[in-house]
Amino acid sequence: MFVTPAFAQATTTENAEVPAHDAAVNGDAVNTETGVAHGTERGVFPPFDQSTFASQLLWLVITFAVFYLLMSKVIVPRIGAILETRHGRIAKDLDEAARLKGDADAAIASYEQELAAAKSKGHAIAATARDSAKAKADADRAALDAGINEKIAAAEVRIGEIKTRALAEVGTIAEDTAAAVIERLTGTSASPAEVADAIRASGNGK
Amino acid sequence: MANDPTHQFLVNKIVPIEIGGIDFSFTNSSLFMVATVAVATAFLYLTTTRRGVVPGRMQSVSEMSYEFIASMLREGAGSHGMKFFPFVFSLFMFILTANLLGMVPYFFTITSQIIVTFALAMLVIGTVVVYGFYKHGLGFFKLFVPSGVPVPVLFIVVPIEIVSFLSRPISLSIRLFANLLAGHITLKVFAGFVGSMSALGTVGTIGSVLPLLMTVAMTGLEFLVAFLQAYVFAVLTCMYLNDAVHPGH
């Protein structure tokens, strides 16, 4: 530290052995190191051998710079592109799958919609068919009922006529029977007017 | 020499180069730096040539490393931190490949050199500091002032924060260096026992099964450490980059 820069320069460039008294004065380790022949000395632990440092540094700088350039210009873009392509491809395939699934869902939805429409249409057709059949049946029955009632009424009228006629004939039969009975019993024939009066009188007497 | 456990860390010149009196020789260390770059790049490049939408086994490994670091950085530093992705990815792949290459017998482990790990750590911290000041100006100093802390406590907290920030490059580099160094030395020592015990005769040969088993187990552990230390380095890098992107805690 007491040594002048010029003197230090001189000792290093001359590569000379540092004089003993100077070494004692400055005690600078660098000067003693540079005085030793490079790389060949024994006793220094090899990784700490400072004589190899300059060469190792230089070659590390060269090789690592080349390596960095190769990585950043060639390898990283290359692998990056491969991964990019793959992710793009996967994303595209997923999109395609999603699109196809959407299509399938839409198809299912339209199918179900049509099915529902067809079902409701079927129901409607069935309902109208049932209604019209029922209406026709009702109409038919009503017509039949009307015809039957008419026939019943006509029949009742005829029955009434027949009944009155029969009842009317009952009097004549009674008179004939009574005349015949009287003739048999008395041997004399009674006049029909008398018989009729007698019967009417007994009929009234009832 | 064969049983010296530190011999494997010795840096030997292959092509001596000296510029301006400083030794810049191409050494076995330089060779394995080049090998690391070549192996990592070749693996990542060749496994992705098919560009398969459905990845093969090896392509998955490359993609997994990519996505692993990407998610780590996104969780650590948010989406703004993603601009550092090539940097963190390079660091992770470089350290991981260097560690794994070091597992091959007779190969040099560049991450067991303190200067290499320290340079990588300083690169991270340098990036944090430069980007932090570039992006936030003096606001970057908010990093040392946690929000919501009462003023008297700040007099204690701020120095602690500064010291912890300054110790980051040291802890980051020493952690990687020491793990790799210690692992390789231990492995070498146990493997050395096998040889030296076998030389003691029959009993020694039978007994050498124990260090052999230990060596096998340690090898498995060292593969774990090789990955784990690359992972830890990358995770911490993400955390430190988060400070550069969002300084105000």
Protein model, in words:
The complex is a heterodimer of chains A (206) and B (249). Chain A has 206 residues and is mostly helical. Among the domains of chain A are: 1-35, no CATH class; 164-205, no CATH class. Chain A is 83% helix and 0% strand. Chain A contains 5 helices and no strands. Chain A has helices at 5-14, 20-26, 29-34, 53-186, 192-205. In chain A, helix 4 (53-186) crosses helix 5 (192-205). Residues 1-41 of chain A have low confidence and may be disordered. With 249 residues, chain B is mainly alpha-helical. Chain B has one domain (69-245). In chain B, 69% of the residues lie in helices and 4% in strands. Chain B has 7 helices and 4 strands; from the N terminus they run ββββααααααα. Chain B has a two-stranded antiparallel sheet with strand order 1-4. In chain B, helix 1 (28-46) crosses helix 3 and helix 4 runs parallel beside helix 7 (209-245). The longest helix of chain B has 48 residues, at 151-198. Chains A and B meet through helix 4 of A and strand 3, strand 4, helix 1, helix 2 and helix 3 of B.
Outline of this structure?
The complex is a heterodimer of chains A (206) and B (249). Chain A is mainly alpha-helical.
H/E element order of chain A: HHHHH
What fraction strand of chain A?
Answer: under 5%
What is the assembly state of the chains in this entry? heterodimer
Distance between the termini of chain B: 52 Å
Describe the main β-sheet of chain B briefly.
2 strands, antiparallel
Write the layout of secondary structure elements.
The complex is a heterodimer of chains A (206) and B (249).
Chain A: H1 5-14, H2 20-26, H3 29-34, H4 53-186, H5 192-205
Chain B: E1 13-15, E2 18-19, E3 22-23, E4 26-27, H1 28-46, H2 57-77, H3 85-102, H4 114-136, H5 151-198, H6 202-207, H7 209-245
Antiparallel strand pairs in B: 1-4, 2-3
Helix pairs in contact in B: 1-3, 2-3, 2-7, 3-7, 4-5, 4-7, 5-7
